[in-house]
Structures are given as C-alpha cells and as structure tokens.
Amino acid sequence: MLYIKFYTKKNCPLCDEALVLLDLLRYQYSFELEERDIYTNDVWLEKYQLEVPVVQVNDKTTLNCEEISYEALEQALSKTDN
Predict the structure, then answer these.
(1) Which Pfam families match (predicted)?
(2) The pTM is what?
(3) Is the dihedral of CA 19, 48, 63, 33 positive or negative?
(4) Phi, psi of 13 (to 5 degrees)
(5) Three-state SS across the chain?
(6) β-strand pairing of 31-37 with 2-8
C-alpha cells in the first residue's frame, strides 16, 4: 500500500486544491494519507514553509506546490505503486 505524507497549513487554497486531487486519485490507487500541519512542528515549518503543499509518496517521491498537478500526482503514485 502507498503511504502519503501531505504537508499543509490552514487557510491555504493551494493545499485545498492538492487535497481534492488526492481525493480524486483514491479511485485509482489505494493509499494511506497522513496530513501534517507544518505549524505543529518546527522542523517541518523550517523545511516546507515556502513550498506547501508538499506531497511525499512512500518517502521516495516529493512534489512541492510548483510541481503538484493531477498528472504529476498520478505519475508519482504509479511509479511507487506496489
């Protein structure tokens, strides 16, 4: 099963859009989604504050706000699907 870490923050329209795309992909791929609010962890905040939303698939593929699209997410999920 795929495991996705979704780094996000409140009041973030890009994060909301990325979450909708992930929800759409649930019809094709089985995955567990862990949402991580970057404001709850100083390490996440420092690392991702200018890049949210960030999607990390199985700790292998990471997409940031500039890279996230339906096609990019689907490609990341299909590459790491086991």
Answers:
(1) Glrx-like
(2) 0.92
(3) negative
(4) -60, -35
(5) CEEEEEEECCCCHHHHHHHHHHHHHCCCCCEEEEEEEHHHCHHHHHHHCCCCCEEEECCCEEECCCCCCHHHHHHHHHHHCC
(6) parallel
Res 2: pLDDT = 93
Distance, in Å, from the CA atom of 3 to the CA atom of 6, rounded to the nearest integer, reads: 10
Ramachandran assignment for 30, one of left (phi > 0), alpha (psi -120 to 50 degrees), beta (any other): beta
Q: pLDDT value at position 32?
A: 96
pLDDT band at 73 (very low <50, low <70, confident <90, very high): very high
List the structure tokens of 15.
């994060």
The two tokens of residue 50 are 């200018």
Name the token pair of 31: 């995955």
- Joined tokens for residue 9: 């923050």
